[in-house]
Every structure is written in C-alpha cells, then in structure tokens.
Amino acid sequence: MSKMKEKCAVFGVYGTGFDAARLTFFGLYALQHRGQEGSGIVTSDGSELHAFRNSGLVNQIYTEDVIKGLPGSIAIGHNRYSTSKGGSTEHLQPVIGRDRQIAVAHNGNLPSTVLLENFLNKKGISPQNLNDSELMAEAIKYYVARGKSLPDAVKLAFPLFTGAFSLVIMNHDTLVAVRDEYGIRPLCIGKLNGGYIVSSETCALDTVHAKFLREVEPGEMVVINKKGLKSTTIAPANLKLDIFEFIYFSRPDSYLLGKNVDAVRREMGVQLAREAIIDADLVVPVPDSGISAAQGFAEASGIPYYNAIVKNRYIGRSFIAPDQHMREWMVRMKLNPIRAAVEGKRVILIDDSIVRGTTSSAIVALLREAGAREVHFISSSPPYRYPDFYGMDVPEQDHLIAFNKSQEEIRAYLNADSLHYLSYEGLIASTGLPESTFCAACFTGVYPIDIRERTSGVRPAPIWVTQQPTLFSASQPQE
To answer: What's the count of helices (H) and strands (E) in the chain, helices before strands?
Structure first.
C-alpha cells in the first residue's frame, strides 16, 4: 500500500510491582499501529539487562517463554517501522550494546547526523553502518563509560541530536525519558501501582490501566529511579507537534495536547462539509483512516454514512510489494466494496490523505466496478507536497502526486467526479489549537528543525500546481 508510515513506538515501565516485560508487551500491543516491522523489549533485574528483539508483529513474536526470559521491574520496549538503513533485524530496537550497560529506544528521525558522526569519529568510535538511533546510543554510552550517570550522559549528548526524537533510555536502576525541544513526536507519562509508565500514546496507558499524569514537555528530561520522578529542562520548549499525529498516526482513543484524536478527526469532517458542498447519496470512509472524518462529514451534511468498504485485517505486511501493479493488487486483496450498498449511488469517499495517489485511484476504481454512479473523493488533509525528515516514511518529493499535479490533474488521475481537500486553515481550526503549535512541513515546506544537508532534497511546488481551481460536483450545474 502507498500509505505513509510512522517510524516507531516507545514504551517504558519502572517499578510498578508487576512483571515489567508483560506490561511492556501489552503496551506495545496497543501501539502496534505505529510500527509493524519488528519489536523488542529490554528489562533490568537490578544487576543485568535482558533483551529480546525480532521481526514481526507483537502478538506473533512474544511467546510466554520469551516474556519469562525477561525478568525485572524496569523495561523499555519498541515497535519499529524503518525510515533508514533498511529493514534488517540488525537495526531493531531497543539499541543495546555488547556491554549491556544501557538500552535506548527512539521514536523520530534525525535528518542530519553530521554532529554525531564527527563526535564519535573524534572519540575513536566508528559510526559506519549505524543508523540515527544507534548513533545516539553510542554518544550516550561514551559518557556513561567515562563515569557519568545516565541522566548526565543524556544531557551531555543531547546537543548532538539534530532532529526529532522521543527517547526512553534505561540502565540497571534508572529509566529516562527525553523529548526534543520541538516535541515533534508525542510522549506521555502515567502512574501505576506506585510506579511509572512512559508511552508514545495515552491509549497504551489505558491498556495497562495506568493513570495519565501528563505529557513529557519539549526539551524535558524525566528521570525515574528509586528516589521517584525528577524533571529537568535541558532545552527551551518550542512546541511543534507533527500535525499528522492528529490526521493519521495516533490511535483515535489517544489524547494529544488535551484533545481526543477521534474528536479532532470528526471536526475535520465537519469542516470539510462546510468547504465541500456535494449532492450525494452516501458518505463512505476508507477503512480505517477515513472513518472519523467521514462520520463528522455525514453528521454535518446530513448525508447517510455507510461502512461500504470491507477491510481484510489478516493480510500481513510481508505481502507488500513496491511496484505500482502490486500495490493495486494489494488494494483488491485488502479492501472490497459492498455492491448492494453503492450500486447506482452517488458516493462521497473520504480518506485522511493522498500520497502517491495509487491506492486512492485503485479504491475509486473498486467503487466504480461495484456500480457506483459517481465517486467524489475527499481528503481530510491539505495537498501533501513536501517530504518529511522527522520520522515519517514517505516517498521522495517527486513521487508525491500533489507536488507534480494540479488538483484537476489529480482528480483526473483518480478518475473521480470531483476532488476536494480540507483547506490548511480548516485543518488548523479543526484542532482547536494555534497554528504555532504544529509542525506542518508536509503541507507548507516549513521545517522547524534545521534539516541541514537534506535541504537539497526539497523544492518549492510549482505555482501552476498550487493555484487550485474551484471544483464542483459533477451533479451540480457549473457556472
């Protein structure tokens, strides 16, 4: 499929009185949507770190024997979807060195690793074949090996981390959570039975029955050990949460910045109903990414909502092939319309975004083959024109359909009767938060964290692409 992917999920447990590995398993299970390539857990029994990492889904790789082989009351876990260095098991996380003194789990991406590589080279440590997460771990380990406490080592290495990161780090007796000063990726803290949980999303706190305390602030380091929880600001906060956490990445039952994700997505649909007036019979979501926005659109427009596309949830990612022909076959394997619901109907099809356009065009084709009289495609986000360097796995800019084609050309490519995007202003309004809260680089081309040597890979969208015409429903008279 041509959906974008988030890089990772992180989860940490300290001293809850429960089996830390088992809690981490449940937490990672709840965060499976953030990474499906592989998973890992590291625990501490107070004197030794124990680790397990493997490719596959959480419920496939963790057996009872695996969990029993991970003793201790401190743990960190990680689900991975790679954005660098390919997909081999060699780069699965948490990162743990041969000396097994610390373990690091990272959600995010460093667009530039020059500072880290120069630092390590000067210290006699080869950065060759290391991805960004492994480079970060090596820098922290350097300071730990020279007698620094884990929190001090993290603080000293922090200025070398040029990019987006939410980290959970552990040694034998301490758990550390730290977030970059822009807070591009989410991270939160919960309390359970006298101990603490750290998680990428609040939904995982709910799963393990932890009480949500608060989000880790941008530029904050949280240290948890036998003395309790201590917070230190190591960089001034300048919040720029990736707005795609609201659009697509986070689970609908999670909360970000005090807002329920599902409620925000529904509001996107409400806003779309104001912006795109279409005469139609049904509002149909692309499962599962378009459901919340489609429900909001249906409620606001008065057009009936119908789950008219059935999703096969048992197709693993191992079947995904990179070429366009196989992507189209994947759509047919994974999604199937209900002919009786759409035949002869004017359908409004809603999804969260359009990336390459291959999947979207294939879904439109499925609805037409099932007898839909009209198909109007609506995206609950603006045109996606710029690459991401902060932890999303998206195509290069030349492969982003909205970078190369005008809105009318995209409509024709999708073979839709009309095409509508949520306006950028409507997107921000749907969150109920100020525009300054967010990183929206994929829409605006404005990168809050300097992408340094990656700047050459970004070009402004052509004027003829960004000047969009007003599109009408084919069933409405055009003036």
So the answer is: 18, 25
Q: Which residues contact 213 (CB under 8 A, 6 or more apart)?
A: 188, 189, 190, 191
What are the backbone dihedrals phi and psi of residue 196, each rounded to the nearest 5 degrees, phi first? -130, 150
Token pair, residue 165, equals 């990161």
Cβ neighbours around 434 below 10 Å, total:
9
188 among known catalytic residues? no
pTM score of the predicted model: 0.92
Cβ(322)–Cβ(217) under 8 Å?
Answer: no
Q: What is the DSSP string of 17-49?
A: SS-HHHHHHHHHHHTGGG--SEEEEEEE-SS-E
d(C-alpha 51, C-alpha 103), whole Å: 9
Strand partners, 179: 166
d(CA 76, CA 153): 18
Which domains does the chain show, CATH number per domain?
5-239 (3.60.20.10), 265-432+461-466 (3.40.50.2020)
Q: pLDDT by residue (tens digit) across 406-424?
A: 999 999 999 999 999 999 9
Greater pLDDT, 4 or 427 = 427
Contact assessment for residue 136 and residue 161, using Cβ atoms and an 8 Å cutoff: yes
Choosing from 8, 203, 439, 442, which is the catalytic residue? 8
Residue of 15, 9, 151 whose CA lies nearest to 74: 15
- For residue range 303-334, list pLDDT tens digits in order: 999 999 999 877 654 333 445 566 667 788 88
